[in-house]
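re: ur question from yesterday

yeah so i grabbed the chain u mentioned. its 358 aa long if i counted rite. heres the sequnce exactly as i have it in my notes:
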Amino acid sequence: MSASTDLRTGDPTGLHRVLDEGVVLPQAAQRLDTRRELWPDEVRVRVERLNLDAASFRQLERKHTTYGVADGDAVRAEVLEIVASRGKMQNPVTGSGGMLVGTVEEVGPESPLGLAVGDRVATLVSLTLTPLVIEDGLARWDGHGEQVPCDGYAVLFGRSIAAVIPDDLDPALSLSVMDVCGAPALTARVVGEYAARAEAGSAPAVAVIGGAGKSGSLSLAAARAAGAGRTIGVVPHLGEHDLLADAGLADAVAIADARDPIALRDAVAAAGGPADVTVVCVDVPGCEGGAILATAEGGTVIFFSMATSFSAAALGAEGLAADVRMLVGNGYVPGHAAYAMDLLRADAGVRGLFERRL
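ran it thru and got these structure tokens back, copy pasting raw so excuse formatting
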């Protein structure tokens, strides 16, 4: 084990890795220290794959698309530039990053994470706060997908979170699930609260915007398991409608542009809404108003999209005189990784949708 001789005091939040002049946490920092040497409570991981946040990847893809054709080389070059300049993967437009899979190669003597050298792990903290060095130029990535083969290293702090990858699942599948595992866990918690208070025959209605996606499909499965009386999946077009209907995850599947507040409200209403709980899982901006309108008075909106404008959500609810509780899904609920994996194993519909995306 090697230890840093830097005069900065180690901190479990990773504050000692921040290179900005002001005191900010790693997620808010402009640059992180990526040296290989570990502070005593850190862990270094040999990276084999990155999973870029969906909102971040879509923004990069749109930026580098000309005449309807995405330039994968340009996307790859920008990811490399971001990581090299910032010491982490944090899209400057969306502010989001993603997560990674790799193998533990060194563990500090005071690390509380319970990891051992040789463990294959997925990080459950964002790349926006994870010191990262890419050493292969992303030579095996064509720039056309969220999952990025990679050789390099990353550093986890004392308050980071990582999960050992289960042996019974393909690592790429595990990475896809762990990337969004906070969504189903919080959905289950909130829906369970409503179900516990519901009178006989009045179990909560749950609408998931983006129901055919990764976080959306898991959230639908979680809502049903937690006692939802009716589940509504909202998708943007007929192709996803058919996929979600075939998966059997929702009692009703509605087609609507989530950016059109009236269309979204009416689609959810026609499918059995308004919803007691609305879960927003789409990776495009401008969905706040429709989600609020689709939710019953006294209901809850859970925002899991990094494309969400939280000022637009707050001011929109005020302007609509909507009595709704709004929650920001922060990606962490105790036991969230194991819970999401159990949903995947137990529900063939969820697994089928995930495997189609690999």
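noticed a couple things. The longest strand covers residues 43-52. also The domain at 182-357 is CATH 3.40.50.720 (Rossmann fold).
anyway ttyl
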